[in-house]
Design a protein that fits this description.
Layout (H helix, E strand, L loop, with lengths): L1 H6 L9 H8 L28 E6 L4 H14 L3 E5 L8 H7 L7 E5 L1 H8 L5 E5 L5 E2 L9 E5 L8 H4 L4 E4 L11 H18 L1
Parallel strand pairs: 1-2, 1-6, 2-3, 4-6, 4-7, 5-7
Helix pairs in contact: 3-4, 3-7
Length: 201
């Protein structure tokens, strides 16, 4: 392993278990830990034609949710995850762990809302927002590729002015007493609906 790392231009450092524990944030760390340069997260690195499904999250706060959304994106073959406004660090220990390796299969980009909208409208792409205020059921529309699924903050949902800029605004049915789904669960339901529509064509 050391030879492979060094042959690829990396550096292998032998250290103490206590340091591995501090770096990993775990009391019982694995014997090997990797440290990498952060990815370039600018929108210009994305190729929207690479996939028919993209996930977009606005002001996501929970690293577990972020990691799970990445994992869902990998499962449906999404192109990646675009983080809008002030989101949790996608490279935090908790987010990386929750992604179960999907951090390395999904492109990640970060942007402020105006920057994202300008980029989105510069090419093909249907922006589909999820909102409890929507009147259309999520299974009713036909989704055009590439579909950008926009998910709001865990507590507040999407701001009204963001919803107004969506091409479609849909809601998931809530048949119980809870007022909303977990955002990562909602991402999975929406992503698989879009995927299934493509599979049925």
């Amino acid at each position: 392993m050391v030879e492979s790392v060094e042959a690829a231009g990396g550096e292998a450092i032998e250290t103490e278990r206590e340091i591995l524990a501090k770096l990993s944030g775990k009391d019982n760390p694995q014997v090997v830990l990797g440290a990498y340069r952060e990815f370039d997260t600018s929108l210009s690195t994305l190729d929207r034609s690479a996939s028919g499904i993209w996930l977009v999250a606005q002001s996501l706060r929970d690293p577990g949710n972020l990691g799970t959304v990445l994992r869902t994106g990998d499962a449906v073959g999404a192109g990646g995850l675009i983080l809008v406004d002030d989101c949790v660090d996608p490279f935090s220990v908790e987010a990386v762990r929750a992604s179960m390796g999907a951090l390395f299969t999904q492109r990640i980009a970060t942007a402020r809302w105006p920057q994202f909208v300008e980029w989105l409208r510069s090419g093909p792409g249907q922006l589909v927002g999820t909102s409890l205020r929507a009147t259309e059921d999520y299974q009713a529309p036909r989704y055009d590729a590439p579909t950008f699924i926009l998910l709001g903050n865990e507590a507040q949902g999407l701001p009204a002015d963001y919803e107004a800029q969506c091409d479609k605004l849909v809601k998931l049915p809530m048949c119980g007493r809870a007022d909303s789904l977990n955002v990562a669960v909602a991402a999975g339901v929406m992503a698989y609906e879009v995927l299934n529509q493509r599979r049925m064509r």
